[in-house]
Each structure stands twice: as structure tokens, then as C-alpha cells.
Design a protein that fits this description.
By secondary structure, the chain is an alpha/beta fold. 25% of the residues lie in helices and 30% in strands. The strands form 2 sheets. Strands 5-4-3-6-7-9-8 form a 7-stranded mixed β-sheet, with helices on both faces. Strand 3, helix 3 and strand 4 form a beta-alpha-beta unit. Helix 2 packs parallel to helix 3 and helix 5 runs parallel beside helix 6.
């Protein structure tokens, strides 16, 4: 037994059902070797990667129809990998990344559940430069501005890994950390636009959630 319980979800995205192995609930925790602790993942946050959140669903739905032709794409904080799997289903050139010790294995399992080839994965802590990763046309993430300091880290990631002409798409459930991040992106030459209307639960009522697009031209 792995020390945690899982379930299989069926997530409809733009008319296609994706099967996703997720943690059974937010009470699951297993870190027998201390790998998560060494990665800075506290026990109270350990299970968050293992759910499909509303912000992740919105990002996946957006990726199901977004123009990705010819683009090299990086997903930050991929978790269970839904958006990257949607992109792989479309034949896009995507690299999924996270820093949770189980993200890679869950992504691989979920690719198999959906009869998809393995999605390229990178263990990518945001605060540490990775000189081998290269640059991307499109970088995406859902609920990645979880803490105040994450905006600084992601802005630095954009400097390191975005091409001169690039886009960043984020779904944010309204945590209040957008202001400073958007200013940092403006300094890098990005123009921001946003759409609203998703909430923090499964209801159809619009909420504080926003889909944000930051675009820079050469």
C-alpha cells in the first residue's frame, strides 16, 4: 500500500472525458522518506496537488481550444496534470512541471488512463534556476499565486523561460496576490487582460476567479 487512498474521476473537457486518478480527499498524507519535507512541502499542504480544483478545470477547458499550433508550452504546478493531458490529447508540445514528489507518477498514470503517450515532466522548484529547460512560447498555471511570495518567483521564472514574444495564462481563484505580480509583469513588457466568472466550488454561479492573459510582443 502506498500510504494514501485514491479515486478515479471522470472530468469532461470540451466534449471529451478525461479519466484522472486523484487523492481520495484532503486528509491523505504519506511522506515516509521525508522527501516532501525536504522539498518544503508541509504536511498540511501535501494533499493539495492531488485534487482537481475549479481553477484547474477552467485552465484545462481553455487549453482545449486555445491556439497552441507550433508553440512550446510549459505548465507550472501541474499537479495531476489535467491541462497538460488536454494539450497532449491535441498533440501539443508541452512540458509539465511541479515540485511535489508524487506529481510525476500521477501524471504518468493519468496519461496511461487516457491512452496518451508519456508527457514530458520536469521537477521545477520556482526559486531555483534551471539552465537546461530552455524558453517557451506559452506558459500556463492554475492557482499558482497561492502565497504572496509566489508572484515574485513566477515573474522570475518568466524572465528565465519565456521567449521574447510570449504569453502567460493563469487561472486565479481570487487570493488577492495579483496586484504586485501584474506590476512585475508590466515591467517585463507584458500587457494584461482578464476574464472573470468562475467560483471556488462546483456551482455555476460566477465568483471571484479570473482567467488572466499576459502577452508580450518582441
Amino acid at each position: 500500500m502506498p500510504g494514501y487512498a485514491t479515486r478515479i474521476l471522470t472530468i469532461p473537457v470540451n466534449g471529451h472525458d478525461f479519466r484522472i486518478r486523484a487523492l481520495s480527499d484532503l486528509q491523505q498524507f504519506a511522506d515516509p522518506t521525508g522527501r516532501a519535507e525536504r522539498a518544503g512541502i508541509h504536511s498540511s499542504l501535501w494533499s493539495l496537488f492531488g485534487q482537481v480544483w475549479p481553477a484547474g478545470r477552467v485552465l484545462a477547458e481553455t487549453m482545449s481550444h486555445y491556439d497552441v499550433a507550433g508553440k512550446r508550452i510549459l505548465e507550472l504546478g501541474c499537479g495531476l496534470g489535467l491541462s497538460s493531458l488536454v494539450l497532449a490529447h491535441r498533440g501539443a508540445n508541452v512540458v509539465a512541471s511541479d515540485h511535489h514528489p508524487l506529481a510525476e507518477s500521477f501524471l504518468a498514470y493519468n496519461a496511461g488512463l487516457n491512452d496518451l503517450p508519456a508527457v514530458h515532466y520536469r521537477d521545477l522548484p520556482w526559486e531555483m534556476p534551471d539552465t537546461s529547460l530552455g524558453r517557451f512560447d506559452l506558459i500556463i498555471g492554475s492557482d499558482v499565486l497561492y502565497e504572496r511570495g509566489h508572484g515574485v518567483q513566477i515573474a522570475a521564472m518568466m524572465e528565465r523561460h519565456a521567449k521574447s514574444t510570449a504569453e502567460l495564462l493563469l487561472t486565479d481563484p481570487g487570493r488577492g496576490n495579483l496586484g504586485g505580480f501584474s506590476r512585475a509583469m508590466a515591467v517585463q513588457g507584458y500587457e494584461a487582460s482578464e476574464e472573470g466568472g468562475f467560483g471556488d466550488d462546483e456551482s455555476t454561479s460566477p465568483g471571484r476567479g479570473r482567467l488572466l492573459r499576459y502577452a508580450r510582443t518582441a
